[in-house]
Design goal:
- This protein is of the alpha/beta class.
- It folds into 2 domains: 36 residues; 208 residues, Rossmann fold, CATH 3.40.50.
- Helices cover 39% and strands 25% of the residues.
- It has 8 helices and 8 strands.
- Strands 1, 2, 3, 4, 5, 6, 7 and 8 form an 8-stranded mixed β-sheet that branches.
- Helix 3 packs across helix 7.
- The radius of gyration is 25 Å and the shape is globular.
Length: 246
């Protein structure tokens, strides 16, 4: 039994050494650095637009709407919402409480973000008590494993709509392909796959939101770091009746 086990180990080691030798030979032929076992090829793309009328229409109070998910990864839209909601006060804006937004969605019979298109902007803003609406979606969120490389790709977008004018006064998009690493042996390939699978989707989306918010102009409220101030700027909005939804 022991002899068979050691024989198996020898065969496995031989296969790994053969694969390594083959990979190194290929690296020499194509001119890749031998010691650079994994090349970090992180790709980041971004796009944003700020309306020329932003300063004139700048809102004080923003309602963050439920985010949409166009990817194949379930519930990533919740991570996007949490990342946006947590950072909005840091940019100098008051935000409508999540519980109030959820109550309004329920009152209007909204179960998915796509249904919001059937509600007039004016009616929705009035019910929420907001001066602007912040919506967004996750377009991609997935781990890609290839024969020679693997990657985590994620992309999302945000849009700020002014309630009274109906104009989009700010929008931003971010794409990221993270930890794209070229493999040269099966051990590193296994390590990279495990690393990507455990990569926090919350962290990925939080990073993208942080980058997008860098392009959002600062609001009218003084920005503080204390949690008490942030809680004070989370508005419950004025209670409304069913007549507001008619």
């Amino acid at each position: 039994m022991a002899a068979r086990f050691f024989s198996y180990i020898q065969i496995l080691i031989g296969q790994i050494c053969f694969f390594l030798a083959l990979s190194i030979a290929a690296a020499v032929i194509i001119g890749c650095p031998l010691l650079a076992w994994a090349e970090d090829d992180t790709a980041v793309k971004e796009n944003w637009t700020i309306s020329p009328q932003f300063e004139a229409l700048k809102p004080r109070t923003i309602a963050v709407l439920p985010m949409d998910n166009l990817s194949l990864e379930p519930e990533v839209e919740k991570s996007l919402y949490q990342a946006v909601y947590a950072r909005l006060s840091q940019k100098g804006y008051s935000k409508i409480a999540t519980t109030h937004v959820q109550k309004i969605m329920k009152t209007f019979g909204i179960d998915t973000p796509g249904q919001l298109a059937g509600i007039s902007l004016k009616k929705l803003c009035t019910a929420l008590g907001a001066e602007a609406l912040l919506s967004g979606q996750v377009e991609q969120s997935a781990a890609i494993h290839g024969g020679v490389y693997d990657a985590v790709t994620v992309s999302c977008s945000l849009r700020l709509t002014h309630c009274d004018s109906g104009k989009t006064i700010w929008q931003a998009e971010q794409w990221r392909t993270a930890h794209r690493q070229w493999q040269i042996d099966p051990v590193n390939m296994l390590i990279n796959v495990l690393a990507h699978e455990k990569s926090s989707r919350e962290s990925r989306l939080a990073w993208l939101v942080q980058e997008m918010f860098k392009t959002l102009p600062v609001g009218q409220l003084e920005v503080h770091e204390e949690n008490l101030f942030e809680k004070a700027q989370t508005l419950q909005a004025t209670p409304f009746t069913d007549k507001d939804c008619q």
